[in-house]
Design a protein that fits this description.
The chain has 14 helices and no strands. By secondary structure, it is an all-alpha fold. The protein has one domain. The longest helix has 31 residues.
Length: 305
């Protein structure tokens, strides 16, 4: 074997410089990175849609959790959930006579209007206020399990829907006494209104839950806004009490449209087409916005709670 001459080997004190020649760009890796960047948003959106789909398919879980919330709230109570009915009845029957005298209106038209409006408003306001703490209250489940986040909103809807069924009972004697009999068409609109209202509550409830887990000051802010909207919405007072000019402005109040979506069928009437169109647009906008926000923040919710 021939040995390498000493003149060809580098001296021991020589410094070997790196190869500074420009490298040829890897076109395949560049194209792969571009395609991965372009497909990232659809993958996040698909994950959000899968979360909603898995939540609906897990109906046994959120139905059981919602029913358990009612049982735990009223355990060791003699009347149980019917305390809800009793407190709602006292509020409706006492406020009806007082405000009818204050506004000097006919009790036969004002009493059912007030009763139905208060029940629907209680349902809507409870959903709004409780949505802001939904993920915080379920932080134990979120940190320890991999359940879809939409399950916790569906649990909230189940619990409040059961409470709503109890709150409707005091309204029935008023409707019977004043001989208000809903027609088949108004009952159909009542079912449609319930489904549409639950869809709106589902969309915006998930939005509020995400915002409430990220920003803890959301709940007191929302609570103050809800109190102001209660006074600005025709619930204690009738829409026809305002002047014609002011009546046009109340149409833009979303709470008025949501309350009227269920109150009109309760009183045997049909909701106005503008009310139905307004609520449909509200549901579509909320569902789209909720998907975008859930897709961008879903992987952070577990760290926020």
């Amino acid at each position: 074997m021939e040995e390498t001459p000493d003149c060809l080997s580098p001296p021991p004190h020589a410094i070997i410089l790196p190869n500074l020649a420009p490298k040829t760009p890897n076109i395949e890796a560049f194209l792969t990175s571009i395609s991965a960047t372009q497909t990232a948003p659809p993958l996040k959106l698909k994950t959000a849609v899968d979360d909603l789909r898995q939540g609906f398919l897990s109906w046994r879980i959120w139905l059981a959790l919602g029913y358990q919330d009612i049982r735990l709230r009223y355990r060791r109570s003699q009347l149980g959930p019917f305390w809800i009915t009793l407190s709602t009845a006292i509020m409706i029957y006492s406020m009806g006579f007082v405000y009818a005298k204050l506004f000097k209106v006919d009790l036969s038209s004002y009493y059912p209007y007030l009763a139905a409006g208060l029940v629907v408003w209680t349902f809507i306001s409870s959903l709004i206020l409780e949505s802001t703490e939904t993920f915080i209250e379920n932080s134990g489940f979120i940190r320890q399990t991999s359940l879809p986040f939409s399950i916790y909103i569906l649990r909230l809807l189940t619990r409040n829907f059961i409470i709503l069924l109890h709150n409707i009972l005091p309204v029935l004697p008023i409707l019977i006494y004043y001989k208000i009999t809903p027609s088949f068409l108004s009952l159909a609109y009542l079912i449609f209104g319930f489904v549409l209202l639950l869809l709106i509550a589902y969309s915006y409830g998930l939005l509020l839950a995400i915002m409430g887990s990220r920003f803890r000051d959301i709940k007191p802010i929302i609570a103050s806004v809800v109190q102001i909207c209660f006074l600005l919405t025709p619930i204690l007072w009738q829409h026809k009490m305002l002047s014609e000019r002011m009546q046009h402005w109340t149409v833009f109040n979303p709470f008025y449209q949501l309350v009227e979506l269920l109150r009109a069928p309760f009183l045997g009437q049909v909701p106005a087409p503008s009310t139905i169109l307004y609520c449909l647009c509200l549901a579509g906008f909320g569902l789209g916005l909720m998907l975008i926000v859930l897709a961008k923040s879903r992987h952070r919710i577990a760290f926020w709670v």
